[in-house]
Amino acid sequence: MLLKFDKLKNVRDIGGIENREGRKIRSGLFVRSGYLWQLQPSDKDRLSEMVDMIVDLRTDQEVREKPDDEIKGAQYLHLPIFNEFKAGITREESTDEMTMEEVIYNPEAAKEHMCQTYRYFVDNDYALGQFARLIRLCIEPRDKALLYHCTAGKDRTGISTVILLEILGVDRKYIIEDYMRTNEYLMEDYETLTGYIKMQLGPSSNTQAVEESLWYFFGAQREFIKLYYDIIEKRYGSFGDFVKNGLGITGEECEALRARALI
């Protein structure tokens, strides 16, 4: 469910989603969003009423450049999924321009760069450990919601939500559609960001190739989330085995999460 704020645009309570057994996720437990930087006072007040833990999935550099605003009454935890810059994912001002320029005029290279990122989400031990830590935080009882976020709320936050919804037994078709809704909720921000990048690149950016590359970088892509699932099934056989053997989340922990989250 999309939550309305004055400045924040991709804030969603995942409560109300129905799983394959007809049980629904409780509202007010888990909220996903983009970063919480330079918020309106009204947004900070509303977040203070809603959440008591904020989990920031961004890199160290992203946090230094655009730190989250302090939300009264909410504990803050930095839990980076990446420990380095990833073009198209992280949004450091000190972006590796050489990396971007190598692929911005080549849509196939941009697509492959993002595919490598989604492989990282499955294969990298550091990332797997961080995703597992987030899931365990979701199991812990608390008085208000846990909010987790990256920069746009698209890839790192999107995959975190995929894992959470899979453990809670939500149908995969719905999970993929939920992942794709970021395009609807962030289209205005996408146009602003890509317009700025093209302005920086100059007249050479006014090509179909650049448009396609930017869409691969900054849009939610159905083929990327399907690749994520395909790699998991190839490596582990099933998502359940990935949760157990890849993330190291036990069956007892999954049951505890379901008991807390489902009605």
The neighbouring-strand order within the major sheet is 1-2-5-3-4
Task: Give the CATH class.
Answer: Alpha Beta
Shape: globular
- Strand content of the residues, in percent? 5-15%
Helix-strand pattern: EEHEHEHHHEHHHHHHH
Structural features, described:
The chain is an alpha/beta fold and 263 residues long. It has a single domain, classed as Protein-Tyrosine Phosphatase, Chain A. Helices cover 54% and strands 8% of the residues. The protein has helices at residues 41-50, 60-65, 97-104, 107-123, 125-139, 156-167, 172-185, 187-201, 208-218, 222-236, 239-246, 251-261; strands at 12-13, 30-33, 51-56, 75-78, 145-149. A five-stranded mixed β-sheet has the order 1-2-5-3-4. The chain is globular, with a radius of gyration of 18 Å.
